[in-house]
Fold this sequence. Notes:
By secondary structure, the chain is of the alpha+beta class. The chain is built from 8 helices and 19 strands. It has helices spanning 13-24, 59-79, 98-109, 119-125, 148-161, 203-208, 280-293, 342-353, and strands at 2-9, 29-32, 49-51, 84-85, 89-93, 114-117, 136-140, 144-146, 165-167, 172-176, 181-185, 189-197, 217-227, 241-244, 247-250, 258-263, 303-311, 318-321, 328-332. Helix 1 crosses helix 8. Flavin-adenine dinucleotide is lined by residues 9-15, 32-35, 41-44, 49-50, 171-172, 198-202, 206, 221, 223, 262, 307-309, 334, 336-340.
Amino acid sequence: MISYDVVVVGAGVEGSATAYTLAKNGQRVLLLEQFPLPHTRGSSHGQSRITRVAYASDDHYAIMMKESHMLWRKLERESNTSIFENCGYLSAGTPDDPFIKDTITSLRTHGVKHDVISHSELQIKYPMINVPAEAIGVLDHSGGILKANKALYAFQEVFKRHGGTINDGEQVIQIIPGDVITVKTSKSTYQALHVVITVGPWAHKFLSSLGLHLPMKVVRISVHYWKEKWSGQYSMQKFPTFMYGKVYAMPCFEYPGHVKACLHDGPEIDPDDRDAVNTNDVTEAVRKYVSEHLPGLETVPSVTETCIYTMTPDRQFILDNHPEWKNIIIGAGFSGHGYKLAPIVGKVLTELVLNKEPSYDLSRCRIRRFLPPKHQL
Ligand SMILES: Cc1cc2nc3c(=O)[nH]c(=O)nc-3n(C[C@H](O)[C@H](O)[C@H](O)COP(=O)(O)OP(=O)(O)OC[C@H]3O[C@@H](n4cnc5c(N)ncnc54)[C@H](O)[C@@H]3O)c2cc1C
């Protein structure tokens, strides 16, 4: 039986970032993925994700984001890949909207360059958006686009360069806890001193087999691309990443002349039966939004793709040791905002494996928040 220091289960962005960081820390690591790579069945595929330091009320993530952006730049250098487009992040809302107020406070607190933009200035600077007269804008200069597929591949390539092994098309069937953990897969059996579980939308099912029943809702997200009416209006030079209400949009990047605009929500699904639900009402909600707030776009999406969010009730991540078996470490419940923080997730999960004090306060990401009081020691 082959032995490793660490087996990481799940090669999405969180597992790949963790495997990469572990290997760079001298660990012998096996990264196991159930599907042949690359695949589009989980949460980490596609060409783009929004990144920003602005984190409204969740200041602990804003603190992490400052280092995360540095680590993304480091990955770019290590992999000789362009990953980050610094085109900014514009949020809009009324001045008394807690989201807007907290965003401004967070940016001020962390010394991040930003502009608070009046409605009349918004109209001049961003004629391609239309928000109510009471709304203002906040431009976070640190924000932009992460090239998701490229980033995922970069983590995996640098991981392999540091001696890591990736076995794809190999599903983990069973984990047998112990001082030495046994990992049974569809193809083989391995032993490891530690196992990291980063199985994305499959976390609820997977962790149940280890006695952990954590509240996570898996939702299908419809990823819509809307064609510009006039070419160039929503280019990256003119239009930053944008959040207003429950819809976010990105400048033309993936498909020429198309803006990606999506609802930050969707119907609950089983990740093994992802496409069994009807999402017409989601498309209709975004169509209505586009016609009201992004008037330079056609109102029928040209392309629709699918992705999955794994939501916790408080939208906080789960980053912790298994309560019973400390050598099993869990990264889950990334609640639709985990991409930008993947380098930090990799860093803190590595620290948990190495039994080091985590670099960041993880108190809001601990499993004990979901456990009955007798476990909350
Ligand atoms: C449409 C969309 C837009 C988003 N936008 C943003 C954004 O703008 N900014 C941002 O920061 N975040 C964003 N996110 C969230 C971010 O993409 C996710 O938080 C992140 O990708 C989660 O990664 P993961 O590794 O946890 O999950 P996944 O990518 O799903 O990876 C889990 C992996 O585990 C594998 N696996 C499962 N079970 C097993 C098993 N038994 N054996 C082996 N392998 C297994 C799966 O096949 C999968 O590959 C977005 C997500 C979506 C869907």
